[in-house]
């Protein structure tokens, strides 16, 4: 008896009726409910607006009534990631309240908790067909949103499970010389010397590197952005992945990140490093989300990595409550009707690529992956506002366009998609090499 796992992307749900009265929407509900375990990334604080907004610039506060979680349960969601840059939008009270509301509906969550270890702890969903563990983390988060462990005389800090990373900017020597001169002429050398001399900033370990404008630079023949995982964060997550692999039939690692490579659709180098490392530690699937659009699919050691599943529910434009910072960022007068338009436009609706998404279903037999299918979904960007942003299975030209986009994005990894009517099967570089 096989176990079917369904994966979806970013869920920004603010109102009801996630599934509309259309055959395509009902078919999606059936697909999700018939899976043994269905996952999404909850990118909302759903604690009936408890807490105080803590949003950072260009990070709108996403909140909703707790009743929207009933909608997710109704369409078959079993477990959510709550490690993302919106989990602490209403501070610790909002995060803790959302966790309580999820538990009240028997929706499992991973990625946030009262301490760093609790935030890293896997969520387990047990079914007759098998057991699934989900570990969730995020590389995109605001200062103070990350959980911490206790110190000798200090309690732990509640928050999310962080995946920190390091960045080095490589530039040609001529550009580096010009940057040095500008840094000196602006008086920033003195500021940097002060914080280093005071011990607030440690010296760089490699003498080939230097700090300029708050970034680490190194001379190189060609410009490039280097990123790599923080070893302490990576090793901590890997330990829990190995633990989960001993206790579940299937281990899913969910990672939320807005970072990119040279293009928006290309993952940053550290994201690939992370995905490969957790698979080496026992993960069966890596589910990436955060860029709100599709990215390619890679098979590593026969296990799939989804670098971007896209949006699943996008009802940001239907939010009732906006924070003062939202008005400030978008230059709208508080209370003005134009504020809603300023916050949400141009936004996702103006860009069709953010309405092209997929739900992935994976079949496992005795813990081994035997099949991967992709189901294109439409968020109806051309519908009236009240109905826009809710998912249904795509068909016809829209389904074909989503398949074509993912095919192109997955080519660099040697992954192929094969059409099967309105859906697609996914294959590694060697046909049917899924084990």
UniProtKB/TrEMBL annotation:
InterPro entries: Capsule_synth_CapA, CW_Biosynth-Accessory, Metallo-depent_PP-like. Belongs to the CapA family. Residues 4-316 form the Capsule synthesis protein CapA domain. This is Poly-gamma-glutamate biosynthesis protein. Signal peptide: none annotated. It comes from Amycolatopsis methanolica 239. SUPFAM superfamilies: Metallo-dependent phosphatases. Gene3D superfamilies: 3.60.21.10.
